[in-house]
Amino acid sequence: MTRLLYSALLLLLTPLALLRLWLRGRGNPDYRKRWGERLGFVPVLPRRQRLWVHAVSVGETIAAAPLLRAWQAAHPDWALLVTTTTPTGSAQVRRLFGDSVEHCYLPFDLPWLVVLFLRRSRPSLAIVMETEIWPNLYACAQRRGLPLIMANARLSDKSFKAYRRLRWLVAPTLQRVALIAARGREDAERFVALGAAAGQVEALGNLKFDLERSPQVVAAGRAWRDWLGQGRPVWIAASTHPGEEEQVLAAHRLLLEQQPQALLLLAPRHPERAEAVLALVQAAGLQPLRRSGLGPVPQLPPLGLPAPGTGAVLVVDTLGELMAFYSASDLAYVGGSLVANGGHNPLEPLVLDLPVLSGPQVFNFREVYAELQALDAVTLVDSAQALGQALVSAFEQGVPSPAASPAVADWMRQNQGSTARLIERAQQLAGLSA
């Protein structure tokens, strides 16, 4: 009965969901494409053993990449299907894996749409990244005998409180999952408190610690830095949100007073916001430069193009290049943290040996940030003024690399290995030998 009420409400909201896709298409036309997949009409895939991984958008796809590559290496006879819900996630899948994986959008969580999707996609094993709780999807998977894993599962304070109010719906949904692979002990305890059985939940660690330091990324970053200029301070503000870019630009203006040659790389979380961000740069009295206008991705700008001048801000409005631009920088500010968004992954710049700055709103990565603070590997600032002062101080004193700290390197190593643990458990559920 609870799932019936949920489905009825979702059915009523579906026209609004489609309208939202249409409206978002004003900024990114890809939101207006492939609606058939969102209604379950995905391509009919060949009948073979298939691992299906659902990764909502860009961040989840990046986190899933080591898992997908490891599975490809261990089980080359299996097909790999990756679903997303956003066009940016779709583009990231194609950029990382090309045609080596199958891809489509995940349909809305209505039972007949989910059944149609599962009949056409024919998965043998399912892994859902992060905390995606879909009552009809999980019920249909259980009915079909499809083992389903929630990977890298986490529950922030805010999410836990919200889900607890819906425990009548969440508890039976969680009980249909074969394995909840939680990031840590606290997350595991919260899933049990929401109704999962203790035997369903294991704290396997955070997959994001297994992020790869790609030689190709490092080489691309070096090439970008050669063009940007080796003798100037370069910092990146990554994954920023509305209301945050203004603060970042104010901080950069403070830095320019002391370091006139300093360059900011500004990478909004959603590239379709590039026009608005470019307008903010211009309104701040700075010179906007758009990455997509410099040449095709992922190539470098034409050789004859002059480097950004004094007061320039390079807006990174492309997908798949963030790690390269991290690698081209001296210091990273990780966004979503000077606004109440919860912050983004600080491990991405850290794996490239960048010092990390963040705002105080980092509840999405609370445990990671707490440990980084204990290791003195991150600086938290609470305003544009504080961010500007931290930048001035860092560049005046010489930006230290976290790689110089054995404690940070040891901490990273100790937290790695969750991908291997997850694959081992997935193989067991699929009846495979390691």
TrEMBL record:
Write the protein's name. 3-deoxy-D-manno-octulosonic acid transferase
User: What family does the entry list?
Assistant: Belongs to the glycosyltransferase group 1 family.
- Give the highest taxon in the source lineage: Bacteria
Task: Enumerate the catalysed reactions.
Answer: lipid IVA (E. coli) + CMP-3-deoxy-beta-D-manno-octulosonate = alpha-Kdo-(2->6)-lipid IVA (E. coli) + CMP + H(+)
- Stored InterPro entries: Glycos_transf_N, Glycos_transf_N_sf, Kdotransferase
Per the annotation, which location comes first and is thus the protein's main one? membrane
Q: Where is the active site?
A: E60
BP GO annotations: lipid A biosynthetic process; lipopolysaccharide core region biosynthetic process
Alphabetically sorted, this entry's keywords are: Cell membrane, Lipopolysaccharide biosynthesis, Membrane, Transferase
**Which E.C. number(s) belong to this protein?**
2.4.99.12
List site positions: Transition state stabilizer: E130, K208
